[in-house]
Amino acid sequence: MKRLFTVLSLILLASMLMTACSAAGPKKVRVVTDATWPPFEILDEKTKEVQGLDMDIMKAVAADQNIDIEFVNVPFDSALAGLAQCQYDAGISSITITDERKKTMAFSDPYFVAGQIITVNTSNTAINSVDDLKGKKVGAQIGTTGAIEANKIPGVQFTGYDTIDPAFLAVMTNQIDAVIADNPLAIGYAAKNAAKLKTVGKVFTDENYGIAVCPKNAELLAKINKGLADIKASGKIDEITTAWMSK
Questions:
Q1: What is the pLDDT of residues 162-182, one digit of tens each?
Q2: Which of 123, 98, 106 is nearest to 224 (CA)?
Q3: Which of 36, 74, 155, 158 could disulfide-link to 135, CB 3.0 to 4.6 Å?
Q4: 199 and 119 in contact (C-beta within 8 Å)?
Q5: How far is it, in rounded angstroms, from Cα 175 to Cα 97?
Q6: DSSP state, residue 247
Q7: Is the domain of 216 the same as that of 103?
Q8: What predicted TM-score, i.e. pTM, was given to this entire model?
Q9: From CA 146, how far away is CA 150, in angstroms rounded?
Q10: What's the number of domains the chain is made of?
Q11: Residue 158 CB contacts under 8 Å (≥ 6 apart), including other chains
């Protein structure tokens, strides 16, 4: 009788645990971003919610694949480190797919083509291409491909910034000579500050943005790729991109 009572108790406990898990629902997928990179990632100062082209793409993928997501906003270098250590499930933050990054994280199929471009003060006539940056004071956001490219230039005096805003401000106030950043971002900043900023030369790298995923989660990666394929086929991704690029 005692044994029967024990068995019944274990069955009841297991049933309660299953019910609790079912009520809690599926675990939320934590998606990391750095909301300092308009129009891809922006922090709404009123609501404190992250918005932007990337957020809308991630939401569309999640809706297509029935994934419950939550965004986590941290500095870019911390986002990459967290993804490599699987502190976050995925990341979308204008993350360029590189061979070096592939060593520590998985990547979805590309969803946006970008490249690096130079931004200078409107009064600057000496810098017109990458070759003109030799020995100059150049800034970029820490951890970005802009920073990587800047440090390849012979004799460059590099300054790294936690976010991109102070880098552009430093150009506007002539503290540095140029900023290297992704072309959609740089063009947007120059358009909003046309009296003080201009982009020069051509886009000098060819880069693809991808959604980064914890390298241990192949199932999530497969779902994200399926979602991206679906929103590309439906035209949704073009709709999102056009809407944000025209703002």
A1: 999 999 999 999 999 999 999
A2: 106
A3: 155
A4: yes
A5: 31
A6: -
A7: yes
A8: 0.83
A9: 6
A10: 2
A11: 138, 139, 140, 147, 150, 151
